[in-house]
Structures are given as C-alpha cells and as structure tokens.
Amino acid sequence: MRIHIATDHAGLEFSDRLQEHLVSQGHAVVDHGPDHYDALDDYPAFCIRAAQAVVADQRSGTEALGVVFGGSGNGEQIAANKVEGIRAALVWNLSTAELAREHNDANVIAIGARQHTVEEVFSFVDRFIATSFPGEERHARRIAQVGAYERDGELVDGPAPRERSV
C-alpha cells in the first residue's frame, strides 16, 4: 500500500521514524512534509498535498492512505479534510484508529505527535492500515450523505432546528 505522510516541525521526528517502520513492512511511503526542522513552518500546505495525493491515488485505483502529524493533530485533520474526497479522523487510541476505518471509511488519520509515544503512534497507524471498511449499509449511507454535501451542498432532510430559551 502507498502511505502519504505529512507533518510540520512538531511531528518531524515521528514522521521519520514512522516512515522507516512502514517501509520495513513493505509499504511505499511518500513524504509531503518538510525535509528539515523549522519551528516556524506551517502545516496546511504539507497536509493538503498529502491529502490530494491520497485522493489522486485512490481515484486511479492505487491503494493508498494518509497520515498527518502535528502537535495535537487537530489543525492537520482540519487541513486534510478541506480536500474533496478526504475523510480524515483524529486518532488517539487503538479504538479510534479502528473505528475511523470501520465506521467512517477514513482515508487519512491525524495524530498529535506531542500527545503520544512513538510506539503508540506505530500501533495506531498499524491498526488503521490493517482495518478495512466492511461496507455496512448504515455507515455507507452516512458517508454518502457527507460526500453529497461536500460535492454539491445537498443535505439529507432531518428534523427541523428547534430553538430553546430560558
């Protein structure tokens, strides 16, 4: 599988070690992040490029996923999710890594490098890669609803908003 990785300065050491780990498992790794430490670098372009590459690979029939890092993973997740076709999930334990794939068919995960050990990160990424989307109807339906909104602003009808006051 091809794994696209992006980070800023906060996750640079994790990214380098994760790339070695993934290559040792037989994955092809593409690094979209910086090649040197710069405490003032900005994550959006790195993460967006990685997300664009995941979508391009998947649309061409290449099996691909993405991993984006930052201090918390929040901004990186937000940036990746701006790319049409990306479903990026913030992962902080094995369960969220697994559920990101099983329930949301996530194709990118975001991890806070300042929140976890390298071993934890390896386990989250390994679980994410190893878990497939089973295609259960209720999850597929919800993913399709999000995709429709992303493409053309179409919202599936739901209950009308209700205002409450004190």
Structure characterization notes:
The chain has 166 residues and is an alpha/beta fold. The chain has a single domain, classed as Ribose 5-phosphate Isomerase B, Chain: A. It is 45% helix and 14% strand. The chain is built from six helices and five strands; from the N terminus they run βαβαβαβαβαα. The protein has helices spanning 12-24, 43-59, 74-80, 94-102, 118-130, 137-152, and strands spanning 2-6, 28-31, 64-70, 88-90, 108-112. It has a five-stranded parallel β-sheet, sandwiched between helices. Helix 1 (12-24) links the parallel strand 1 (2-6) and strand 2. Helix 2 crosses helix 3 (74-80) and helix 4 runs parallel beside helix 5. The longest helix has 17 residues, at 43-59. It is globular, with a radius of gyration of 17 Å. The protein starts with a strand and ends in a 14-residue tail after the last helix. The mean pLDDT is 94.
| Oligomerization | single chain
Distance between the termini: 54 Å
CATH topology group? Ribose 5-phosphate Isomerase B, Chain: A
Largest sheet: 5 strands, parallel
Percent helix among the residues? 40-55%
Unreliable spans: none
Assigned CATH superfamily? Sugar-phosphate isomerase, RpiB/LacA/LacB
Radius of gyration: 17 Å
